[in-house]
Amino acid sequence: MVGPTSYFDPARAGELDPRTAELVRRRAAALGPAYRLFYREPLEFVRGEGAHLFDADGNDYLDAYNNVPSVGHAHPRVVAAIAEQAARLNTHTRYLSEPTVAYAERLLATMPELGEAHVMFTCTGTEANEVAMQMARMATGGRGFICTTGAYHGNSELVGALTDAPRRGRPNLNAFDVPDPYRPPREGLTAEQLGEAYLADVKSAIDDFATAGVPFAGMLLCSILANEGLPDMPPRFMAQAAALVREAGGIVILDEVQAGFCRTGSWWGYQVTDVEPDIVTMGKPMGNGLPLAACAGRRDLVERFRAETGYFNTFSSTPVHGAVGMAVLDKLEDRNIRAHVTDVGAHLLRGLESIAPSCDKIGDVRGRGLFFGIEWVVDRESREPDPAGAGAVCNALRDRGFLTAPAGPSHNQVKIRPPLVFDRSMADAFLEAFADVVAAVPA
Amino acid sequence: MVGPTSYFDPARAGELDPRTAELVRRRAAALGPAYRLFYREPLEFVRGEGAHLFDADGNDYLDAYNNVPSVGHAHPRVVAAIAEQAARLNTHTRYLSEPTVAYAERLLATMPELGEAHVMFTCTGTEANEVAMQMARMATGGRGFICTTGAYHGNSELVGALTDAPRRGRPNLNAFDVPDPYRPPREGLTAEQLGEAYLADVKSAIDDFATAGVPFAGMLLCSILANEGLPDMPPRFMAQAAALVREAGGIVILDEVQAGFCRTGSWWGYQVTDVEPDIVTMGKPMGNGLPLAACAGRRDLVERFRAETGYFNTFSSTPVHGAVGMAVLDKLEDRNIRAHVTDVGAHLLRGLESIAPSCDKIGDVRGRGLFFGIEWVVDRESREPDPAGAGAVCNALRDRGFLTAPAGPSHNQVKIRPPLVFDRSMADAFLEAFADVVAAVPA
After folding, report:
1. Which of A72, A97, B59, B233 sits a CA distance of 20 to 30 A from A412?
2. pLDDT the model gives residue A65
């Protein structure tokens, strides 16, 4: 859970303007008081366009946080696709649907690494990871999964068990250390020794299942370790971890919910971290806000799962899913988003790296395409995480009209992950505000 | 799994017209060959309106099956709501959203039986039941659930375990007999003794947990036992089963995914079967096709769950969810759907009951509002289920332009569950076709 210094504290509702206070009160009564809101002073938006969000007073916020509206908030082509298809037909998959099939074909073509593959649509990333984990269990006859100690892959019982999993001690689940050279397991290791240490931990997590008599099913991993704080992994870590999993008879599931759909400058994060999946899961930006997610996998894996379960998802694989998914792919290709992300991402990274040395609280700057994590620390020597500092920066940026949020396993990173239409001029405006906020941070 | 006599058999793809055969081939390649299609000859629709679906050749099918488009396929007001809100704003719930709060308030007002309650939105019924079961476990500290032997509540690992659960033998799960007087557990019981026998089985399922040392969490039950075949339960069965659950410290979760939103002529199925829930789950017709579902519960239950889990669902509780959900409620109220369902449902039931005696294969006709199950049996004496017969009827109706599908624990019911805008003239057309099909059934 993120610290109260950056999220809204219900105890301070009295300090809000009357309209906001009343909406907060109604929201707590209807949806529950523990339902969190971003920022010390919560925001209510009424309109979005491109990478901008507007509140009821017409104030303009530059969105440097939201990854779901990846081709832009309220994008006209996506809106037209949903409106036109919903006005025509929206049924389930017990009938034939050309838009669904055409979309599935086009999506699979972006994943040549899977070879001959099938895709199953779901409504959320949680559902996609549920399918993937069940699929891996059926294929292997195993039960045990490995993941990182900083994982988050969804909120069902099966998938939610991976959240912040301990290294050992949960049934069917062993976590291995996040391969983060910024905080190595012990000091004095060479880069090579460090890589070996991380892989040894992966192997130990796998071997522990054999010792415990739990048959092994596989690994579920975000391809860029997004929730783990985008660590600068040792080279070849992902491929070598995948090889260990396969040697032990397990299935490699790569979660592309955050990394996929051009976020890193490639179609898929695994193409950047150079590892080949057996199963790929995806979600968030896939429908630009429509609940659309999927699990793609090698044909043998999907066929077995489909035959054994008769899986059916009422709301998924509909013509509306197909039409909207296709509109998002159209926009990603029309705008040559991969090149755009690579260019703007590199520009923003250079800017952040030029600001970082001025502030001793900034311990590290990590970036992959248009996805950044800025490590906030008590000081550079101790590297002790400073979640309150990261939260204060996010609130200060909000007050200047720029949206970010804290992230990372210790909630001490400032996460920058804008819609992919974020451009160089937006990056410059953001960097100016960020430099101002950083300059005001007490030493 | 439903029998191949009613679903499409891929081995017979060669008998299809070339266009359909090609789409079937592409679908199998992209989505997997085991992905089932309704009917011996699959249908591809291109347009929907009200209770009608149209194929590419302009053929008109009367939809007597689909419950999701409850206010009608492609309803203009629902389409306008999604188009307008998606064009304006669609973000997640870490920002304030008036449409979401207003919708939650209005929805909760239809469930006075919950008292002071909160609602949590999800994207699918599976996700709603995941939340409900986790919520019940947190509230009770228990693990064990009871359900019926004919249950289906979703496809995640936790919720999917309830599907066709055996009476005993699975961890944390005991099923009790479907209270179906048409197939009593033994002959010669009076109605009163039969009711007692079913309740004794519920009690035995609960008590078994105590014997096994498994702390009890509660019961998950469809309020009208839809997948169990809409049995004509003994009076007060639901309320008495709920009382047994509460006596043992368990939580009563009622699944309204099929029964809710006026399907039975009341807002909620539990109002018809006269039982009070602690938690209510809902889905299918809620967004008329948009992935929208929810779990509503007593405030103490929801607050504890929210505080313990920090549950967040990216695609849920959005302004688009709020706007679309509100448009559906508007239509249900504007058209006075509850009175309409009661009237048309009674009319259709009378018609079905007048046809039934003419065919010895029809063992029983069950109905709740606009939801019917017609029991197909080998003969009325043995009452042996005849899934092939039910499948043949559904295929014959399809060939005449009327959509139904087989259902029930033995897949031997013809399920009639049209959009709620189905009217008397549609019912008459359906009854005429049904009478024709029944007349052609071999004795």
Report:
1. A72
2. 98
CB contact under 8 A, A89 and B47: yes
Structure confidence at residue A2 (pLDDT): 41
β pairing state of B144-148 and B173-176: parallel
Q: How far is CA A374 from CA A6, A355, A417, in A?
A: 16, 11, 11
Cβ atoms B127, A122 nearer than 8 A: no
Q: Which of B37, B156, B157 sits opposite A94 (nearest CB)?
A: B37
Phi, psi of A97 (to 5 degrees): -145, 110
What gap in Å lies between CA B237 and CA B274, rounded to an integer?
9
Residues forming beta bridges with residue A405, ordered by sequence position: A415
- Chain B stretch 49-78, residues whose beta carbon is closer than 8 A to a beta carbon of chain A: 53, 66, 68-69, 73-74, 76, 78
- B-chain CB neighbours of A31 within 8 Å are 93, 100-101, 104, 118-120, 317
Q: What pLDDT, in 10s, does the model give residues B18-49?
A: 999 999 999 999 999 888 999 999 999 999 99
Q: Would you say A284 and A67 are in contact if contact means Cβ atoms under 8 Å apart? A: yes
What rounded mean pLDDT belongs to chain B?
Answer: 96
**B3: region left, alpha or beta (phi > 0 left; psi from -120 to 50 alpha):** beta
Interface test with A, best of B101, B172, B415 (most A CBs within 10 A): B101
Whether A400 and A369 have beta carbons less than 8 Å apart is answered as no
- Nearest-CA distance B84 → chain A (Å): 9
d(CA A360, CA A362): 5
User: How far apart, in whole angstroms, are the C-alpha atoms of residue A243 and residue A237?
Assistant: 10
Q: What are phi and psi of A298, to 5 degrees?
A: -55, 145
State the residue for tokens 């005696």: B357
| Chain A residues close to B286, C-beta within 8 Å | none
Percent of chain B predicted with pLDDT > 70: 99
The answer to whether A121 and B124 have CB atoms below 8 angstroms apart is no
**A86 to B79: CB separation less than 8 angstroms, yes or no:** yes
Contact B125/A at CB under 8 A: yes
Please, are residues A29 and A22 in contact by the beta-carbon 8 Å criterion? no
Average pLDDT over residues B78-100: 96
Nearest of B209, B199, B214, B191 to residue B244 by alpha carbon: B199
Q: Indicate the pairing of strand B402-403 with strand B60-63.
A: parallel
Q: pLDDT band at B436, cuts 50/70/90?
A: very high
Q: Which residues contact A55 (CB under 8 A, 6 or more apart)?
A: A43, A44, A45, A46, A61
The reply to whether residue B124 touches residue A309, judged by beta carbons under 8 angstroms, is no
State CA B327 to chain mean position distance: 21
Please give the span between the terminal C-alpha atoms of chain B, in angstroms, as a whole number: 27
Residues from chain A contacting residue B93 (CB–CB below 8 Å): 31, 35
- A:306-365 residues touching chain B, CB 8 A cutoff: 306-307, 309-318, 320
The alpha-carbon gap from B442 to the nearest alpha carbon of chain A, in Å, equals 28
Average pLDDT over residues A83-96: 95
Over residues B370-386, the pLDDT tens digits come to 999 999 999 999 999 99
Measured in residues, chain A has a length of 443
C-beta atoms of B303 and A36 within 8 A: no
Chosen from A23, A27, A46, A394 to mutate, greatest number of chain B CBs within 10 A: A27
Span B357-369, average pLDDT? 97
* Contacting residues of A for B138, CB less than 8 Å apart: none
Single-letter code of the amino acid located at A20: T
A4 pLDDT tier (thresholds 50, 70, 90):
very low
The whole-model pTM stands at 0.97
What tens digit of pLDDT does each residue of A236-262 get? 999 999 999 999 999 999 999 999 999
- Cα(A78)–Cα(A290) distance, rounded to whole angstroms? 10
Cβ A84 vs Cβ A322: under 8 Å: no
Nearest-neighbour CA in chain A from B245: distance (Å) = 23
